[in-house]
């Protein structure tokens, strides 16, 4: 019995020593990790301005970037993931549902959503479910399904209606204004990457924000943003500025041109009849 008790005490002491040693080693590793600089991401956009003309049929932009303070082990194991998102100017959108009343299709119920991106394009080097968990993707609004759609009501409580939100997403997808591409990011080296995103022909005018997100093994590490403008150029720009800045004069000129065109047509075709 005394020997058994001695062995028990020795084993307990050894276990306690190993636990304390492991704790100390873990503390040292944590301190070393804390002393290392955190990973950051830098990026640049291939253009500052996209000019719209009458024959504009769409284009694409390139986003170049690099991972700073990258971990060599993470590079070797391909643990880093990049997501790049373009968000257009925010706006309000009304979605209406048509219903048949007395044999006639009319608009009945509707929902208004505020602060919705007019354009949303996402690209990544792999599917989003392989980059991070759903709650983290939703927090950063990564993915068309995770775009925040906020209902707007005027003095009355409006009940959420998922079918309206889904219709809004589907309508934007059909016009190529909401897009996803999981092969658009390419690593050019261990830390350099390039992302290519398509811009449709009816891209909204205004300032668009480009954000690059850095993930590692499901954890969000850093992000970096930049902007570019979409604007009309040439004659289209002059007409757009006139219509939005000097709307009264634009209306007067439009009416005058219509009258002049009608009068000239009457002279040409009226004289030919005689």
Largest sheet: 6 strands, mixed
Radius of gyration: 30 Å
**Class from helix and strand fractions:** alpha+beta
Helix content: 25-40%
Sheet-strand content, in percent, reads 35-45%
Which regions have little confidence, pLDDT < 50, spanning 5+ residues?
A: 12-33
Placed side by side, the strands forming the largest sheet appear as 2-13-12-4-7-9
Specify the overall morphology.
globular
> How do the helices and strands follow one another from N- to C-terminus?
HEEEHEEEEHEHEEEEEHH
Distance between the termini: 134 Å
The number of helices is 6
Mean pLDDT: 82
Number of β-strand runs: 13
Task: Summarize the structure in short.
This protein has 274 residues and is an alpha+beta fold. Helices cover 35% and strands 37% of the residues.
Overall description:
By secondary structure, the protein is of the alpha+beta class. It has 6 helices and 13 strands. The strands form 3 sheets. It has a 6-stranded mixed sheet. A 4-stranded antiparallel sheet has the order 1-3-11-10, with no helix packed on it. It has a 3-stranded antiparallel sheet with strand order 5-6-8, covered by helices on one side. Strand 5 (90-101) and strand 6 form a beta hairpin. Helix 5 (235-245) crosses helix 6. It is globular, with a radius of gyration of 30 Å.
């Amino acid at each position: 019995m005394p020997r058994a008790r001695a062995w028990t005490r020795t084993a307990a002491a050894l276990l306690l020593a190993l636990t304390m040693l492991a704790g100390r080693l873990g503390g040292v590793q944590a301190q070393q990790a804390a002393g290392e600089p955190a990973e950051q991401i830098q990026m640049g956009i291939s253009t500052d301005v996209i000019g719209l003309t009458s024959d504009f049929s769409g284009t694409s932009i390139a986003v170049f970037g690099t991972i700073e303070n990258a971990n060599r082990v993470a590079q070797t194991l391909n643990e880093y993931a990049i997501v790049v998102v373009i968000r257009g100017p925010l706006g309000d959108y009304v979605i209406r549902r048509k219903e048949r009343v007395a044999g006639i299709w009319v608009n009945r119920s509707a929902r208004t959503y505020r602060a919705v991106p007019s354009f949303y394009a996402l690209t990544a080097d792999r599917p989003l479910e392989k980059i991070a968990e759903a709650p983290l993707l939703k927090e950063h609004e990564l993915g068309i399904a995770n775009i925040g759609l906020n209902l707007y009501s005027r003095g009355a409580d409006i009940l959420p209606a998922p079918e309206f939100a889904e219709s809004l997403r589907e309508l934007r997808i059909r016009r190529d204004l909401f897009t996803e591409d999981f092969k658009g990011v390419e690593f050019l080296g261990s830390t350099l990457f390039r992302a290519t995103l398509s811009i449709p022909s009816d891209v909204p005018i205004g300032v668009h924000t480009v954000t690059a997100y850095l993930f590692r093994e499901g954890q969000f590490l850093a992000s970096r943003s930049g902007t570019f403008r979409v604007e009309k150029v040439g004659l289209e720009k002059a007409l757009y500025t006139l219509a939005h800045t000097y709307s009264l004069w634009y209306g007067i000129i439009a009416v005058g041109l219509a009258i002049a065109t009608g009068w000239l047509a009457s002279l040409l075709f009226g004289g030919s009849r005689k």
